[in-house]
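Attaching the record inline, Q. Sequence:
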Amino acid sequence: MAELRGNVMGVLRGSLGNITGRVRYGKNYFSAKPASFKMPLDEASVARRAKFKLAVKFCSIALKNNKIKNIWRPLAKNEKLVFQHLVPINYNLFKNNDLSNSNIITPPDGFAPRILDISYETSVLSVKIGGLNEVPGYQFEIENQIKLFGIIYRRTQISEEDGDYKLLSFETGGEINEEDNSITFKRLIDAKNNPCLNDNIKSKIYMAVYTLDENDNTVHYSTTFIHNIN
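Structure, as predicted:
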C-alpha cells in the first residue's frame, strides 16, 4: 500500500483500473486490487473440498462435547488449537474421500474397550462393554461416572436441506452390572425423527467411553470403536 503525498493526482476514492484509493485520517492511500481467484471445478478439486468440509463438520461435532475437547487439549501444540489439531488427523484417515472405520473421536492412546454387544432395536441403541476393572489404573471409588459419547453418520441423502450426509451426536450414562462388572449404555434414538438410524439406511456409529471424577474431570477414556448398520 502506498500513501500519496502532494497533489499530483488529486484525491482518489474508489477504483481506477487495478488501483484502489481510500482516504484515512486525511491521507490518501493506494493499493492494488487483489488478484481474482477462480475456484477449480475439476472432479478432484471438488472431491477434496467436500472431503475437507466433512472432516471439519465431524470434528466440530466431536469437540462440541467439552469432555472430548479436554481429552485432546494436552495433545495439541496449543490448547486453543484443538480443532486445528484434530481436523487433519481425521482428514488423513478418510477412505475414498469418505469417513472410514479408522476415523476417531478420541486419541489412539486410550484403553481398548472390550465390546460385548452393540445393537439397535425398536429405536434404542444398546452398547455393552466389559468392566473397567480391566483398565490399568481405574479406581471405582474416584471414577464414579461413566459416559458413552457417539456420533452417528449417514451418507445417503436424507433431504435436499440436509445434503448428502447427516451427522448426529449423543451422550448417555452407563449402568454397572454387579455380577460381572460389565457396563451397559442405552440411548433412545427415534429413527422417525432422526433418520440417521433408519433400518434401511447404511450408517456408522463412532463411539468412545470416558470416566469422570466427582469434580466432573475426565480420568480415563477409551479408543474410538465403530458400529456399522446395514
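Residues 2-32 form one domain. The radius of gyration is 25 Å.

More tomorrow.
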